[in-house]
Amino acid sequence: MLSGRTILITGAGRGLGRAIATRLGEAGATLWLADVRADWGEAAVAELRGDGVAARFVPVDLRDEASVDAMFATVGPLYGVVNNAALADGVGGKAIHELEVADWDRVLAVNLRGTFLVTRGAARALIAAGGGRIVSIGSDAAAYGSPRLAHYIASKGGVAALTRTAARDLGPHGITVNTVSPGLTESESAAFVPEHRHELYRLNRALTRPQQPADLVGAVAFLLGPEAGYITGQELIVDGGFVLK
Ligand SMILES: NC(=O)C1=CN([C@@H]2O[C@H](COP(=O)(O)OP(=O)(O)OC[C@H]3O[C@@H](n4cnc5c(N)ncnc54)[C@H](O)[C@@H]3O)[C@@H](O)[C@H]2O)C=CC1
Ligand SMILES: Cc1ncc2c(c1O)C(=O)OC2
Description:
The protein has helices at 15-26, 38-50, 65-75, 101-129, 140-144, 150-170, 195-204, 214-224, and strands spanning 6-10, 30-35, 55-59, 80-83, 132-137, 175-182, 235-238. By secondary structure, it is α/β, with parallel strands linked by helices. It binds 1,4-dihydronicotinamide adenine dinucleotide and 7-hydroxy-6-methylfuro[3,4-c]pyridin-1(3H)-one (4PL).
């Protein structure tokens, strides 16, 4: 379904990005796994290559404009980019009246500014290629308005809004831009989420089993695939029916 397509995934060293890489590799895509953690990224690439996937690692720090631009220079022509990297662990715990500007800046620098930098680089690469796809990973927490996560939620609401304006800017160039927003998932970063938030999801999902990384990947593959070429500017929530809208 994606053979001959080169797709870059940020934050692909572990968690949801790693699961997305597995799914896109199964679909035959050629992959670039980008991460600030070279150890995680290289290990993921080694596993994928062991399964016969054409995968390579490229280092990037989304907080650094020059690093993002260098990443795009390294990888060359692309068909798709998945904006997955974000600070998702250790971000909770403070209500807005307790939040420090340093907390806000640390999270926004990666999750929103970094997503802008990667989306801008992706746009330049995909315009040069004559078209392509961008998928950004949001969070259902933005629509729900989860407490004690103001900076994280503002960043993810910003990602969904950035998707809408980028879709309009890039539509004339044959590029679609969409957001896929997972719910609380049993990935490595979930260990940092307080038990009461897991309980909230357990009790309020339409589907009653906990979300796994593999539950997200089909939606991402679909939006990158041949049947989604007329879908753009949208947010698709994949959370087992916790947020319904
Ligand atoms: N796990 C969950 O329950 C949920 C996750 N999400 C979103 O899904 C995405 C993936 O989340 P997880 O896999 O849980 O996160 P994670 O923390 O397990 O993985 C994130 C990856 O991004 C990388 N990264 C962090 N800062 C970076 C930087 N400055 N430059 C480059 N790479 C950087 C990390 O090294 C890591 O490999 C994020 O956008 C997150 O906000 C959304 C809803 C729920
Ligand atoms: C820390 C934290 N708590 C709850 C949630 C998330 C999160 O990152 C998320 O992305 O969706 C729900």
